[in-house]
Each structure stands twice: as C-alpha cells, then as structure tokens.
Amino acid sequence: MKFKTKALLTAGFMTLASLGAGTAQAVDLTMYYPVAVGGPVTKVIDDMVQQFHKENPDIKVESVYAGNYTDTMTKAMTAMKGGQPPQLSVLFSTDLFTLMDEKAIVPIDEIPGADKEWLNSFYPAFMENGRVEGKTWSIPFQRSTIVLYYNKDAFKEAGLDPEKPPTTWAEMAEMSKKLVKKDASGNVSRWGVEIPSTGYGYWMLQALAIENGQKLMNEAGNQVSFNAPKTVEALQYWVDLAAKEGVMPKGAVEWGTLRTDFLEGKTAMMWHTTGNLTAVKEAAKFNFGVAMLPAKERRGSPTGGGNFYVFKSASPEQQQAAVKFIKWMTAPERAADWSIKTGYVAVTPAAYETEVMKNYVKDFPQALVARDQLEHAVAELSVHENGRIYKIMNDAIQSALTGAQTPQEALDGAQKQSERFLSRYK
C-alpha cells in the first residue's frame, strides 16, 4: 500500500551558531517515513511532530511519507546520491547492512545526547537488528512481531473453543479444516487460515523456520540457511496448507488485502503484523482474538518494522537535533500512545508501566500478545545485499506456493543465488 502524501511539519531546536556566539539558528531536519499498514499512521505521526514543535520550538522537521519501506529506502538512497539526503529516516531495521555498506549512516551512540541509559532502555529483541560490531546504529520505533489473528465467532460456529487458538502447526491445520466454509456450489466462501506471501513472504517463512528450530542467517550478515532441511520442511508445511490440506488458497495471498479478507470473513485466521491491530480492532464486526504464532519445535517470530537512522551527511548540529527528536518520540508516554493508536509494539518496558497503557491493556489484552511474544522472538532476516536477497527469497516462495517448483528446488536455487551475492562479504 503506497502513500504519496507529503506533510511538512515544523518544529525547532535552538543552537549556538558558534562557541561563544549569542545568535541562535534553527536546525532543519528532513525525515523520510514509510507507511506499510492500514490505519491512521500518518495522522498519528503528524500529531506527534506537531506536539514536538510546541515543546521544542527551534527544530524544523520536514516529514516526507515516501511510500512503503522499499520505496522509502529507494528514495532515501536516491536523495543521498543526488546530494540531498534526509537527516534522519525510519527504514527497515533490516536495512542496516545495506546502509552501512553505502556509508550512509552514523552510529547513534557516537552522537552527543545518546546516553547509555537511554540506549539500554529498549527491549533487547528490538535492538538485535540495530547493533553491529559493538555499535548502536539505529533506534527501534515502528516495531512489530507477526501474530495470529482469529475470528472467535467463526470458531464458535465451527464448534471450536473461541478461547483456545491453535498452539502447534498440527492444531492449526486441523482447526483450519473445520473453519473452511463452502457455499451450495462447493466454492470456498471462508478459508481456514491465510499466510501472506507477497511483499513480505521472506518474513513469514522466517517465522515458520524459527518455529521449526532453524535460524536463517548469521550475525555477520554474510551467510544464509535457506535450503537447510528444517527451512525446506517449513516451506513444505506452508505449501501443504493449500495443496494438501485445502485450508488456504493456492498461489499468492496478498499482503495488502489480507486484512480486508479477514474483516470480511473470507478467512477465519490470518498471520499478520501486530501493526494492523488497531485497524482490525476498529473495523471488526465480530469478536476476534490475537495469539502467538503456533509452534513446531518452539514458539517464535522474527521481529519486524522500522528503526530510526541518522545520516552521516547531517551536520553535527542536525545529528544532535535528530537524537533529541528520536528520544522524544520514543519516551515511555509517547511510545505507549503510539502503540495504542497503531497496534505496533511499544519499544520499551517503561511504556507498559504508564497508566494509559495499563488501563488500555486491562480492557484490550490482545495488545499484550506481540509484546509477550518478544520472549520467543529472533532478529529479522538481515544480511548484506538485503534488497537482492529478499527478492530471491520472495521469488522462491512464490515459485513453491504456485507449484512451479518443489520447496527443495526453490530453496536450493535461492541458496545458490544468495551465496553468489554474499561471497564478497566473507
């Protein structure tokens, strides 16, 4: 889903023009921001930055909504090479190696104002993608895990306990069979489960792989395990949900329209980002539940979403202003408010200790599922040549789901292609 809205938001930050100088000069910041889910994300960001302006009347922030994550990364890199890069941006937490290879960003822990207490206040699972070689390169903000959304009314109708979602792969397949609904002509009017395969197929396969006990990459970002037996088994399970069990549509399941399918009752369960939680809460005409992803060998989900990055080309004053802005945006009260309004996970434990969050989760416990799943979470797939590797993986997944190749053939090909690109980083 692409948003072409460009919002200019002004705020300010007072800085001395030089040591001993008495004149103040505003610091201008341009922030590229991605929108990857439904709901009021741009309005929430607009409101937050306007509030920042009231409290810090000397920083000018131009907030550019540049499309989805891929579009935003492309535009940020194009702007950088054109000599007009943003000073900060929210990009995939997994874009780190690419941004480092491009020498685009600066370690945030080297910028004045980024103190250790603040840097250590975030959930460790969210910091895994942001720390490399002993340095902190990015700060969590728009973060998520994959969760299972399920229609409690459909569970009741199928004779299933609406308070007991599937906890294992086997249970999900069996429950899905009972949840499939067909019309008089035998056409499926409601699927048992849908896992999206377009856009972020690699993310879903990583979830299945870690649940099967298989990590997909090493910490150095130069080795992948796409055709490991347990990865192949994970993709085979995904394929079988459609081809063998008949509980999921064959072929591609669209990321962008899956939430609508769920809300319209076309699928009883869906795997999706917790970033859609508030949108589902506000639009669902039925009782719904949220659960951790089912397990094979273990529970697990990769983390997901975006982090704040500060660009190397920004002046020292701009870098300090960017850190001040990021600290403000991730403060406990605002992290809690952001989570409530969007569904993304609040990035610090302190956010869940605020009164507003305590009151919210008391009435809506579904909001705690993604946070609780952090205990079982792993860093999202992040390697050098990330864009190329994602495309290779997504193409392989589509090839398997459409039946063009077996999971083994598709992942053997993906491994071979990926090794060719990653070999230069070893």
TrEMBL record:
Mind telling me which GO cellular component terms the entry cites? Answer: periplasmic space
Q: Which residues form the signal peptide?
A: 1-26
Concerning InterPro entries, the annotation shows: Bact_solute-bd_prot1, SBP
SUPFAM superfamilies according to UniProt: Periplasmic binding protein-like II
Keyword set includes Chaperone: no
Question: What broad taxonomic lineage does this protein's source fall under?
Answer: Bacteria, Pseudomonadati, Pseudomonadota, Alphaproteobacteria, Hyphomicrobiales
Name-wise, this protein is sn-glycerol 3-phosphate transport system substrate-binding protein
Give its localization.
Answer: Periplasm
Q: Which UniProt keywords apply?
A: Periplasm, Signal
Query: Which family does the UniProt entry place this protein in?
Result: Belongs to the bacterial solute-binding protein 1 family.
Q: Which organism is it from?
A: Microvirga guangxiensis
Q: What Pfam families does the record tag this protein with?
A: SBP_bac_8
